[in-house]
């Protein structure tokens, strides 16, 4: 009989609330014969304040044994900026080699977008997750003086770029439009830019059916608001991916419905699934948070583990729910979770 | 009697066409007693193909003697990516210490925006122009092999950050809303992020009337499409500034009306003014390019040289022209220039 052994990290702020709904929908969608085991972890601001720890070696050992990880949100104004981001979120992505950071954007019928004319939006960003300016390389000299110099080093390797580019080509190949766009800034960041461009062009030869193009990251932000329909699959570096996926979320229904997967495709380590939004301390504990992004992250999780039919059911339930919800007054977090759980079970 | 000695760099593609209109409006707006001298330079793709040069020491010596520089656009698909960008545009910004890269965004009444509901947009981005990931620091080892490693180093100095932050505070102080937002990614790029944040907070003490806030660059792209009215003045690093100003241009009427100044506030070197758009080779030579961005760059140029009344006349002419043009069929490049020249002369 089948089973899923899930690590659950509710985290801070609205993380607790949205994860509860994610698990509700997950339980509802799974067939009777699949045994779901969950173990909750207390990472985040509370643990940091209590112990000074963000993520220990023992934690990593324990997390490693699960099939996958579901995360709500990590971050709180009481913790200095960077401590939980670098000490937990990024540490985990790097430790578990989550090199494919997958972020789909789809504007569903009737869903509000800041763009005029309800454009068609249906693309996926494959963001590199373990290199670029996110490595923590760099440093500071003469800190706090008028002669301070601070550097940040973007590290890009043929190995790291090629594996994520190949993953993106495979995803493009599997989609009807079969189009892949490389987003970079190769006219200014020429060292990293040449590496990305050369690897992209080389791997393209293995995928003759995939149409390719290249655009600079600055121009990409223009297209995301003037012609988002031009995108099918985008592959890009860690920092550019961070920036354009927030914009992509904003134009395709908002951060309340943006899901993401931090994926280790070879499954040497468990992959982690999380909404793109943060912990939103301003609305935490009020039942106002939209759990849809977390529920869609659960669908990505199921797809990663091979439960495609169940993932499809969640996607369909969200589409139906959002379409029906359009223009109606906001519902509470648990009401949305209940509605989605009822649909997937049905 | 007064005089302006201007270096003119039409450059590539539509650069030629838009600069001609910029000069037309400049001549029309200047009072009789101001002597305008111009010298044209042939930088760009043609010169590069003919001589292999992009910008020599002799060129810099010659350019240095002018009061200001007006640039159309540089760049052509026949030149490998990066050659003209690094060899001309960035070389000039660095050589002439253009550390304040000024990019105003204002959505004028009736002007088309991709955003629904015609939001209020009126802010200025002060982009640092001589540091960050644009310094060209970094390199490549094992190029072209499967073991290639390419790095890009973002260099940030207290000196460089403080002068641009202080400039931005002064600009915020001079505006009615007096609000300054720092955009960075200080939770991930902690070395540079701490420097920027600390300098920002320190300089803020000198400007008690200015309201300040901080947002991450990814979140900034969301606000630019969901709530652009929240911004008054933004100060940010070279790369983040590049990205968000293209998005800002897109939402506030398009790249056809986005002006910029590469400013050396101390006037040790001439400042350079240019439209944010590129050379657009696909529409070059057809009289289709909108010269408005170049004309608005001329206004920034005049303001920099102390001709405030003339700059105001250009801004007012553009506002009137755009409002009248709204919804009408597109006009030719020279028609728009003629209309603006007539208005400012009037
Ligand atoms: C919180 C932060 C470290 C993170 C990132 O920059 O990757 C977030 O913005 C995201 O996009 O997941
Ligand atoms: C052409 C390129 C070097 C330039 C930049 O990145 O600064 C352009 O995008 C700009 O914004 O002026």
From TrEMBL, chains A, B:
Site (Important for catalysis): 134, 185
Predominant location category: cytoplasm
Protein name (record): 3-isopropylmalate dehydrogenase
Chain residues that bind substrate: 93, 103, 127, 218
Annotated residues for binding of Mg(2+): 218, 242, 246
UniProt subcellular location: Cytoplasm
Subunit structure: Homodimer.
Entry's Gene Ontology molecular function annotations: 3-isopropylmalate dehydrogenase activity; magnesium ion binding; NAD binding
Enzyme Commission no: 1.1.1.85
Cofactor binding summary note: Binds 1 Mg(2+) or Mn(2+) ion per subunit.
GO biological process: L-leucine biosynthetic process
Metabolic or biological pathway, per its Swiss-Prot or TrEMBL entry: Amino-acid biosynthesis; L-leucine biosynthesis; L-leucine from 3-methyl-2-oxobutanoate: step 3/4
Domain Isopropylmalate dehydrogenase-like residues, every copy: 5-340
Reported cofactor(s): Mg(2+); Mn(2+)
Keyword line: Amino-acid biosynthesis, Branched-chain amino acid biosynthesis, Cytoplasm, Leucine biosynthesis, Magnesium, Manganese, Metal-binding, NAD, Oxidoreductase
Residue sites binding NAD(+) per the record: 278-290
Top-rank lineage group of the source organism: Bacteria
Family note: Belongs to the isocitrate and isopropylmalate dehydrogenases family. LeuB type 2 subfamily.
Pfam hit, one: Iso_dh
SUPFAM superfamilies: Isocitrate/Isopropylmalate dehydrogenase-like
GO cellular component, as recorded: cytoplasm
Catalysed reactions, semicolon-separated: (2R,3S)-3-isopropylmalate + NAD(+) = 4-methyl-2-oxopentanoate + CO2 + NADH
């Amino acid at each position: 009989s089948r089973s899923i052994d899930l690590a659950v990290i509710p985290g801070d702020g609205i993380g607790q609330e949205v994860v509860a709904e994610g698990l509700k929908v997950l339980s509802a969608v799974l067939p009777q014969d699949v045994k779901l085991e969950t173990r909750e972890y207390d990472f985040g601001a509370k643990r940091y304040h209590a112990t000074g720890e963000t993520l220990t070696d023992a934690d990593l050992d324990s997390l490693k044994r699960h099939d996958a990880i579901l995360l709500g949100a990590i971050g709180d104004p009481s913790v200095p900026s960077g401590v939980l981001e670098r000490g937990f979120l990024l540490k985990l992505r790097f430790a578990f080699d989550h090199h494919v950071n997958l972020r789909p954007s789809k504007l569903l019928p009737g869903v509000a977008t800041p763009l005029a004319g309800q454009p068609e939006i249906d693309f996926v960003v494959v963001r590199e997750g373990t290199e670029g300016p996110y490595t923590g390389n760099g440093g500071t000299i003469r800190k706090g003086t008028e002669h301070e110099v601070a550097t940040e080093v973007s590290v890009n390797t043929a190995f790291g770029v090629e594996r994520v580019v190949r993953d993106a080509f495979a995803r493009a190949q599997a989609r009807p439009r079969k189009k892949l766009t490389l987003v970079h800034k190769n006219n200014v960041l020429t060292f990293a830019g040449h590496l990305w461009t050369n690897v992209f062009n080389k791997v393209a030869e293995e995928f003759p059916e995939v149409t390719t193009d290249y655009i600079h990251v600055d121009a990409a932000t223009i297209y995301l608001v003037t012609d988002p329909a031009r995108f099918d699959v985008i592959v890009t570096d860690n920092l550019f991916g961070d920036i354009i996926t927030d914009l992509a979320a904003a134009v395709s229904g908002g951060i309340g419905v943006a899901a993401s997967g931090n994926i280790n495709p070879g499954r040497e380590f468990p992959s982690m699934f999380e909404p793109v939004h943060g912990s939103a301390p301003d609305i935490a504990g009020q039942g106002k948070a939209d759990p849809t992004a977390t529920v869609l992250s659960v669908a990505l999780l199921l797809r990663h583990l091979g439960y495609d039919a169940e993932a499809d059911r969640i996607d369909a339930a969200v589409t139906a729910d959002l379409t029906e919800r359009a223009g109606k007054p906001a519902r509470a977090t648990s009401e949305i979770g209940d509605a989605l759980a009822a649909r997937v079970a049905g």
